[in-house]
Amino acid sequence: MKRLSEERTKILFEKLTKYIGPNVKLLIERPDGLYCFREQKDRVYYVSEKIANLANTIPPDLLISVGTCFGKFTKTNKFRLHVTALSYLAPYAHAKIWLKHAAEQQFLYGNHVSKSGLGRISENTEKYQGVIVFNMSDVPLGFGVAAKSTVECKNADPLSSVCFHQADIGEYIRSEEDLL
Amino acid sequence: MGRKAAFNEGIIQKKGPGRKAKKQKDPVFPNALKDTGVKTLSRRQKLRAKKRLKKQLERGASQKLKEDKITSEKRKVKNDLDSNLGNHTKTNSVQKQNGFSDENKSWLKPKKRKASIESKKKLAVKEINDSDGEERNLEKSNSESSDSEDNADDGHVQVGSLNDLSDDSECDNDEFDGSQEENEESGSDKSESEDDDEEDGNESDEDLLPIERKNKKLKKELAEDKKLAAEELALNIASQEKFQFPSNEEDKIISLQEVQQRMREVITVLADFSKLRDKEHSRREYLDILKQDLCTYYSYNEFLMEKFMQLFPLSELVEFLEASEVQRPLTIRTNSLKTRRRDLAQALINRGVNLDPVGKWSKVGLVIYSSQVPIGATPEYLAGHYIIQGASSLLPVMALAPQENERILDMSAAPGGKASHIAAVMKNTGVLFANDINRDRIKAVVGNFHRLGVVNSVITCMDGRKYPQTLKDFDRVLLDAPCTGTGVASKDPSVKTSKDEQDIQRCYNLQRQLLLAAIDCVNAKSTTGGYIVYSTCSILPEENEWVIDYALKKRNVKLVSTELDFGTEGFVNYRQHRFHPTMKLSRRFYPHTHNMDGFFVAKLKKWSNTIPQLNDDLDEIEADDIDSPEGEEEEEVADPSPPKKKKLKINKSISKKQGGESDNKKQKEKILKING
Fold first, then answer.
1. Which CATH fold topology does A92-174 show?
2. Is B417 annotated as a binding residue?
3. Which of A142, B124, B219, B462 is least surrounded by CB atoms within 10 angstroms?
């Protein structure tokens, strides 16, 4: 367990801003105590400082996970968000899309979202902005990148994708082995 | 260490008719096929019936005449018993005239009558040819008077009288024979009369359709079958009344049904042994047979079956084994971190799931009866609104009763069902350490925690026995120890055959070490806690009460109530073992009484952080599983425990020296009452 380096912190926050915008600072400044990002084996965990201190007493090779895993740094030093971060991204999300009931299952199998499956989309979503995907009853299903802006979506072909799939909660079953 | 639930996915039960299926009316039979008792005949049939009646009447009249003749003749024969030969010939001639027909079959027995006639004839011939010497000799041998023989020729009367004698006897015989025959006839009547009926039926039903005839035949056969079955049942009951002890020679392979039958019989014998037993065989022999039958019928190995037989009374044993064959109902636990039970139930009902609350004792459990979607892959499941978890797995966490802002350890957490339950009860405050030794299974914990939104957790993968060296001062510890899994044979039937003495020994040694480590992890000075909950999914006392008893001796802990208002009490006495009297505060759960997996839960409170120092030799003895009372006493005396408890124990040891075991037990309880 170690603190993130200056550079990596920057990369991480840049990535998070794509999804939740300025709400990032809400993750750091919380009313219920200090929370911090910690790194272990290139994985980034978001956890209360108290718990992080306790976890420091555990030998690193025996420690599997602390708090919530947000994602990992790749070998090329890019940050990749995991679906496990969803519970923190969803409430603060800027751009959201809602899926029709029929398209819900398709997305949970790891497919992109096509125009025909689009139920709603938040206004002024920009192209290539990070979006959180919900179903019609507001259950977060995953996140991705908008393939089209809101305006473009309105007169798009029904079969063209409006959102590229990045992560979905189906992964909890599909790939439980390599969640972290 | 929980077990993975068997997800009953894929089994989709259809409910009701399909959307497009039209409701059909009940089938209506055409009038011709209806089986009404009286049938209206067509005109032609009526005509034919009239004709038939006429014919029958005519035939009946002629028959009546004949019958009258015969009866009168018969009467004559009977009345004139001392009549002569001529009469006989007459009757003979009359009888010869008689033919066998349906009308007279009730009283006419053709074959036997013939035989009697023949014998009579022969006699007559004999009488006629009486002059033969040989005959005379024969008659001599019949111890007749020589005088009458000498006068054979001239004395028709005498001969007649002789004949009459013989006739008399013959007649008597005849009558007697007749009655006998009748008896015999009535004995074998059934088949004959049935045949007759059939013939009659065929005659009267000539105008019936072939299918109707077949139907009649079938009905008759069915009735016959029923009768036979009833007879067989009666036979079975008769055989049940007295159980034949199987001899050793007949070690044949017998069918499963016979095994079951025998099991039942042996159990009834054992239930009232002194009355129903076979005097030559001991109770032990009966039990051996029963054990073997149970092993073959339920496919357990003998070792485990013997353990169960020691554990349960016989009637309960069968119930338990039977219950272990069927799966427990699928239950889920609502994740109170993300949703409420009512909302979840509504969402699932909308997906076509049939569910109910698990019981009054739990606010988060739901029982799934049937589901049109795989319950382990709904969007609600993936979003972490619930987790599939057996009803029994809710109990240890309820017993643990975690409080907010505590530091809690789950020592063998995989797959994380109970640990996430703890986090949910704590409302994501405090710290939850989830540990498991298996690196593959710990991945399931990671997945479940993230899915369910548990954020206050530290997941570790180490040997639980070394946990105290790493981290201490926990407020509560849950130890769901690895076990043989004898309580969950319905989930994993391999348990039935794969376990033996050594496995159990290995298990309880590990459990003891883990429990001691768990106790060491707890801080007795914690303001809110200081509790340890020990649970297993095994029902063997070796893995439960014995382990607790060991911990009670080794550490400064005491048993406290689990706060679970159901379940059966833990054993205080089990065979040769005399466990601590407070052991009844622990709880056992059985598949046949509580409809959940076999389970054991005990809650301990640590009252001092000091580890009592014991004699090493005694330690070894303990490790070798010899429960010597002497060792106990010394140990207790040497125990530097607080004064109150010590007094109690010394008292105990004194009483042990004084009286027998039963007295001792009573005294123990008395002392307890006084103290508590």
1. 2.30.130
2. yes
3. B219
